[in-house]
Amino acid sequence: MGATPVIAVFDVGKTNKKLFLFDEHYKIVYEKSARFNEITDEDGDPCENLESLRQSVFNSMREVFNLKEFDIKAVNFSTYGASFVYIDDKGEALTPLYNYLKAYPEDIKEHFYQTYGSEEEIAMQTASPALASLNSGLQVYRLKNQQPEVYKHVKFALHLPQYLSYLLTGKAFTDMTSIGCHTALWNFANNDYHHWVHQEGIKEKFAPIVPGDEVMTANFEEKTLQVGVGLHDSSAALIPYLVNFHEPFVLLSTGTWSISLNPVDHTPLTADELKNDCLNYIQYKGLPVKASRLFAGYEYEQQVKRIGEYFGQNTASYKRAEFDASIIALLEKKYPAQENHSANVEPIAFGGRDLTEFTNDMEAYHQLMRDIIQQQKASTSLILKGAPVKRIFVDGGFSKNPVFMQLLASAFPEMEIFAASMAQATAVGTALAIHNAWNSKPQPTDLIELKYYSLKHPTMI
Fold first, then answer.
1. Do 173 and 256 lie in a common domain?
2. Residue 432 is inside which H or E element, if any?
3. Which family does the record assign (predicted)?
4. In the chain, N or C: fewer CB atoms in 10 Å?
5. Residue 244's closest CA among 416, 444, 65, 34?
6. Domain boundary among 229, 252, 275
7. Nearest to residue 461, comparing CAs of 373, 369, 393?
8. 186 and 330 assigned to the same domain
9. Based on C-alpha coordinates, what's the Rg of the chain?
């Protein structure tokens, strides 16, 4: 038998850096992961060890090229967003990879908004809530104002996925999924960089824009490869759903944040939506994706810990907790759901509840889930207004939580609610984005396993 044709995908998270090889059926045939200790920047703030990451890409590529059972046809990258690498005309990084949680100087922020418009105005025009360093465009503005000598030598400011691609190709590009990641760079109405980017001359520091399915030819270890330009990870995770489902849908991606993604709503964000933490992404084909966020996963972890400690229970058992309709009926009488007429997403109420009011931990746990779902409904509803959507797919941690899923089905009785399951959605999406460049087979339609939740009980389909 000959070597198996594969694509190599680097999936770079804040904590774990993973490399996958996928065969033409998108089955994982090889994987490895690495973790690097953070270093500090010149201010003593923690940041990514960029040199370790760079070396890891080359070392990992050499390792898999030595595996004779695989024929590597292509490589692509997905990484976390809101992170720039500033390179000079030799391709050398000029600064540390600054952390997007790094505190932003108040004087520079104040000067920016005084010059170009209020936070609300910029947010409306760029579909990016004001998030300081998480608005990665403001990181470039900061560099220009705080380190002008360094800025002067910047040939290109590359988002992290494009920098990793550049390492193999030597070609610099900007991809739309990274621009569309709450950067405060892009004017969605004008389909161009915001006027502040032109006014500051910062546009000259950005490489040419290409769509997320762009590929380049490169040579590595005397072999010709197709190399993708790289993708923002949240946008990459949406790709398998866009490929597999053609009826309108919303994807509720759950983890620390619960992010509701509506790829069929291209209307501009309203002031109310921005106030409620809505934003726009840009998917790999260049179309906007309306999104809303809720800090539900984090709040869940904090409150489950509180419940477990109070009732003397192991919190691991809650992951296996089954939906109990009798407990819900009791809680509905005890704590009637308050209709949210303001359409605002409020803090999850459970943090303020007195645990002495609950008979046992399961009662408290079900109320926690009710409180989460109440705000999840408000958050997801923000991106459903007027959209012809009848299906909600849930992936990530809460998709495996039957209490969450059953209550979500009750909260959206007019919708079909599915728990979606697939291994490594971000990495699969990154491979699918350049399918035609490396894969001789049709795009698969069976990548995602679905479990349907009705108002009464879940049914496998």
1. no
2. helix 425-432
3. Belongs to the FGGY kinase family.
4. N
5. 444
6. 229
7. 393
8. no
9. 23
